[in-house]
Amino acid sequence: MHHALGGRRRVTPTLLGLGGRQPPPIRRIPPAAGRHRRYDGHGDPVGSARTARDARRAIWSLREIPEALVAAARPVGPRQGVSAMAPTPLGLTTRVPGWPLALFRIAFGILYLDMALQKAPWKNFGWLRGFIEQEIAHPVFPAIGAFLQDVVVPNFALFGTVAFVVELLLGIGLLLGVMTRLVGLAGFLWQVNIALQAFNVPGEWYWIWVLLTLPQFCFAFSDAGRVLGVDAWLEPTLRQRAAAGVGWAGLLHHAV
What we know:
By secondary structure, the chain is mainly alpha-helical. The chain is about 55% helix and about 5% strand.
């Protein structure tokens, strides 16, 4: 230990060989004349202005505790990306949007875009004609086979274009999360329509229709577009205008 001269503080070596100054000596306060006084941790006499100020702050902080507990007990409304679950009489929950469901919705939108581009008009509708012929050869119901044979095949370009446009719009809607309730319901019905035509086609896995229909049913009834989607911005605006009595806004609000 090195002692400095000239009234300097002592310097002690550290583990790295660096010198560090010792802390200042403990402040010793003599007792007041005639009686002993108590001092707080700062060396101020108990009862001084500083001590009284600290005491008032402590009292106010204690008064804020019940308010904080009440605020924490209040129900929290739906937030972006957080599941908003409403209990039902059966103990089930509804409307559970979240980022995993949003990613699933986006993937389904890409799936629709891929299916649409595979049967694009500039590709002569791809494999669509051959698939319709398989549906005619193996109909689920005779009436459906007759409709495909007598109506769809003679007007194949029209129905092929309709199929391309429908799947393109469904893909864009799910990918961007625009009008997701309406798009999900339309996609669900679209796949049910295809399943009724193609269920008996050889080589078609029957579970594929469950996998193509039920996810879109979930998108339609879970507000899936309000997370990572345009519906997150549309919904507040449409809700405000619907509350103001704008009729078209109320209709569109049901679609998001």
